[in-house]
Structures are given as structure tokens and as C-alpha cells.
Amino acid sequence: MSDSDDSSPRPAKRPKISKKDFPEKDGALWLDDGNIVLISAQGVGFRVHLSVLSMNVVGFRDMFGAVDHSDEKEKYTTRTLKDSTQDLRHFLHALYTRTYFYPGKPTHYDTLESMLRMSTKYHAKQLRHELIEHLIMIYPSEMMVLEKYKDLRIPSDDTHSLRAITMARECDVPMILPTAFYWASTISPAQLIRLQPKLKSKDLAEILVGREKIAQAVYKAMWCWLSETRHGCKGDRKCRARRLSVLRDTNQFQGAPPSFFLNKILPETPDEESSDSESDEEDEEGKFCEHCLQQWYTPKKMRKDYQDIWDSLPSYFTLPSWDDLDDMKY
């Protein structure tokens, strides 16, 4: 019988394996001794150590269990995740490199968002705790440190507060919401409308309504001070004119009165007003006398007016009190 008569089946050809079947390797986080490869939604692979993941991330520990080496030659197993390459990269860098992030280190909001999203999703408790501490530095509950860490707002444009609101809503960080909403209220309504795609409509409404509530509280505080009888006033007519000009300036200043805590409604110090009066005698009309100016700058009085408004800040945006928010910090 000729070979052509042999009817036995031919062995199946080994399927060709395309390089596309393998994940694209991340340049920095492909560790040769890693025993697990995490593949992002975009197909980028990160070869890392299950022991490191299990030590820091409860979610990964529960998800992977014991590693079964699906590729005996390479000695690692693979897992495909639904997370973006950016989120996974920032998250793993934070776990592997201690200096990659720590509270108080200037860090771009893109990176913060990725790390906070992943640490919340996979229960990386220590990293999440540190991220919340960092955000509280930027959006504090204490009025006196409102701008202490302003250099941590990266980028520093007006949208930082809107991004903070989105982060807080998505990742359950309510502690930063009152201050983030306050900063958002200092953005002009017209600009807020233009930026609406960055916000949920409910949050946009809260900002606009809260802005009006702050305005009412500010004007109430201002009127109380303006209407008080000042015993010892040395220039009643001049002081009265100056007080009215303060209200006028507050009303005309863009961003005020929501910017009540940030802007100088009066000179920085009583001496500044006094020196102005001495150097500009023609503009004596509308200057405070030294007695009234000192009364305004009495720390107990001024701080109380500011503090009362600040203490009520959460209520202006339909949020729990500062104390209740503190209980929900982590």
C-alpha cells in the first residue's frame, strides 16, 4: 500500500502563539523574581510578588489565595483586572516604593485619585489612611490652617476643589467635603456652570446654595459690627463712612463673601490703616479712627465672628457636623 493510501489522521498542528497573547510589560514594575502578573484593562502587565500584595492589600490576599504557576517555565501566574494601567501603576508604586507617596509630599491629583481609588477598592488600609491624612491637610477642618498646605494643591487652579469633591464622593472620604465645597463656592457661578461636567448636578446645586448661605452669614456678621455703638470713637462720621465702604467693597469683590476667610476686608494690621491715614491726608474721609480699628482687630471678637461661620460650614452644604464627620474620617 502506498503512502498516499494511508488514511490515519495527521497530528494536529501546535497553535501559533502571537506576541499579542502576552501582556505588554510595564517598564518599571516587571520584577524578574515576581510570582504573579497583574494585567490592566489596557493589557499592560505588572510582574510583582504575591507576598508584598498580601502583606499590604486585604483584597488581593483574599482574591488570589495560593499561587498556582500557570506557566512553569516563567514561574508566575497571571490575573487580569478591570483597573486602568494608570491606577494599577500608581498603586503598585506606592506599595513598593516608600518614598513614592507619604502625607505632606506634593503629589499630583491624578496620582492621588488613582491611589485612593485602588486602596479603597482593594482595602489597602494603611495607604488609604495616609491618603486621607494628606487630603485633610489640604482640606482641613480647622479654619486657622485653611491655607497652610496650599502648596499641596497640584494643579493649583480652581478645579482642585471640584476634583476633591469627586474623590470624596467616589471613595467615601466625607471629612474633606465641607472645606472642598467651601473652596468650590469661591469660584464664580458662571465658571462653575462651565465646569459642570466635572461635577454631579446635585453637588453643583449644593455649591451654589451654600455660597448664598455663606453670603448671608457674612453680611450678618458685618452688619452687626457696623451697627455697634463704639464708645470712645474719635471720628464718628469718618468711621461710619469707612464701615459702609467695607460693605461696599465686600459686595463688589469677586469671590466674596464666600472668600470671607481668605481675603483682607480690612488692612492686615491696625498700623497699616494708621500709616495710610498719615500719608494721605486728603483721603481722611472714610478712614477708621485708631480706637475703632483696634476694636475690630480684637482677636476675641474677630475670631468669634469668623469661627461661628466656619463651625456652621458643613450645614451650608447639607453635610453632617464637623464632629460627626470626624467620626467617619477613615
Automatic annotation (TrEMBL):
Protein origin, superkingdom: Eukaryota
InterPro entries found in the cross-reference section: BTB/POZ_dom, SKP1/BTB/POZ_sf
Location of the BTB domain: 34-104
UniProt region (Disordered), positions on chain: 1-20, 262-287
Skewed-composition ranges (Acidic residues): 269-285
Official protein name in the record: BTB domain-containing protein
